[in-house]
Amino acid sequence: MKRKNPYRKNSHLLSSVSREIIKYFSLDFDAYKTSEILKWKVSYRTIKEWYNYFREIIYFFSKIKEKEVLWCWTYELDESYFWAKRIRWKRWRWAWWKIKVFWILKRNNQVYTQVVSECTAKELLPIIRGKINIKDDIIINSDWWKSYDWLVDLWYKKHYRVHHWNNEFARWKQHINWIESFWSFTKRRLNKFNWIKKEKFIYHLKESEFRFNCKLSQKNIYKELLKLLKRYTKKSH
Question: What is the CATH number of the domain that holds 182?
Fold first, then answer.
């Protein structure tokens, strides 16, 4: 007997309706807006459950690629801090309760994100070593955060820094504007949600990473998501 839905195992939803949900998810519509469009076909609760399923699939495939090296000549490094609440005088690195995220971007192509417990050299340097091969022509751009002080000692010879604290945002081709644009993109996306549980944050982060990488690579998000869903459905059978 032919499987009813090729995008999810044991789903009774029609394939045509599934593709509509995937399409609106790809357009970055929230579950409520999608339910308003498809209110005669499927409920809000079902759409929300499918949205969570999409994020789990994106996260699953991001974990598979976690150990892959980012091949490029120019990289940007940065770290950021996420939380819904804001307390006066406690911002950025001094906000200890926030979720800390480290980013590596190979310029013009792909970004990689990882949640870390602390933005210390002891935790960040092994990630950098695992994602960036040591070569003489490789260029690394970062800000002046102290955890990057040891990069030259690790044989990354071309390490340039931007003085954000001195209102400097670029020095010729040495900048971290691409990674800052991803930071801004992710912050704007997460602001759409009134509240994200801490344990669900990683799924939204990886979704933002997936969307941004598709944008950088000029790939169609809808088609890429269809590929992931079909691959996962085949694996689960």
Answer: 3.30.420
Tell me the C-alpha distance between 115 and 113, whole Å.
7
Domain that holds residue 156: 70-192
The alpha helices in the chain, defined as continuous H runs, are 15-26, 31-37, 44-64, 121-131, 177-190, 201-216, 221-235
Whether 82 and 42 map to the same domain: the answer is no
Of 139, 70, 150, 36, the closest CA to residue 20 belongs to: 36
Beta bridge partners, 75, equal 106, 140
Residue 61 CA, distance from chain mean position: 12
How do residues 91-121 score in pLDDT, each as one tens digit? 545 455 678 899 898 877 789 999 998 888 8
CA distance 7 to 45: 18
Position 84, amino acid: A
Residue 113: φ, ψ to 5°: -125, 150
How many domains is the chain partitioned into structurally?
Answer: 2
d(CA 29, CA 211): 13
pLDDT tens, 146-181?
888 888 777 788 888 886 555 545 555 566 888 888
Place of tokens 């990057």: 148
Eight-state DSSP code of residue 13: S
CA distance 30 to 22: 12
- The closest of 19, 72, 22 to 51, measured between CA atoms, is 22
pTM of the model: 0.86
